[in-house]
TrEMBL record:
It comes from Phytohabitans aurantiacus. Keywords: Membrane, Transmembrane, Transmembrane helix. It comes from the Bacteria. This is TadE-like domain-containing protein. Pfam families: TadE. Residues 1-13 have a biased composition (Low complexity). The lineage of its organism: Bacteria, Bacillati, Actinomycetota, Actinomycetes, Micromonosporales.
Length: 141
């Protein structure tokens, strides 16, 4: 009777004739960390854009409300919007307020830039909001 020895199992890992993977964890971490940081900064940039858009909309609403009031003086809406944007800090910068009225309708538009986390983002995507309203006036019954 002839007996044969069981074949030996080879263990994975470094050894003669086997490739080494020293340092691969560092490279994997560098690639993954870069991608994660890019995602985080993009999310922060998106949140600053939507925050600025919210400020612009609220300022336009304040301007329209101030200008549509009964016997409101010319420029009341612009002054109100500028005061509102000044009170909100740096969330919306380089603002321009435009209020137009035809005696029956008021339109207030606020434009500006958001805070920039990613270079060039705020120059490419301007923030703008427009609000319409009816001028308060006395009408015949």
């Amino acid at each position: 009777m002839i007996t044969h020895a069981a074949p030996r199992l080879r263990l994975a890992g470094p050894g003669p004739g086997r490739p080494r993977d020293r340092g691969s964890a560092s490279i994997e971490f560098a690639i993954t960390a870069t991608a994660v940081m890019a995602i985080i900064f993009t999310a922060i940039q998106a949140s600053t854009y939507f925050w600025a858009r919210s400020i612009a909309h609220a300022a336009a609403a304040e301007a329209a409300d101030a200008q549509r009031a009964y016997n409101a003086p010319a420029g009341a809406g612009v002054a109100e919007a500028n005061a509102f944007t000044a009170s909100t800090g740096d969330g919306l910068t380089d603002t321009t307020v435009t209020v137009t009225t035809d005696g029956q309708q008021v339109q207030a538009t606020v434009t500006g830039k958001c805070l920039s986390v990613l270079p060039g983002f705020c120059n490419a995507f301007k923030v703008s909001a427009t609000v319409h309203g009816t001028v308060e006036r006395v009408t015949a019954p």
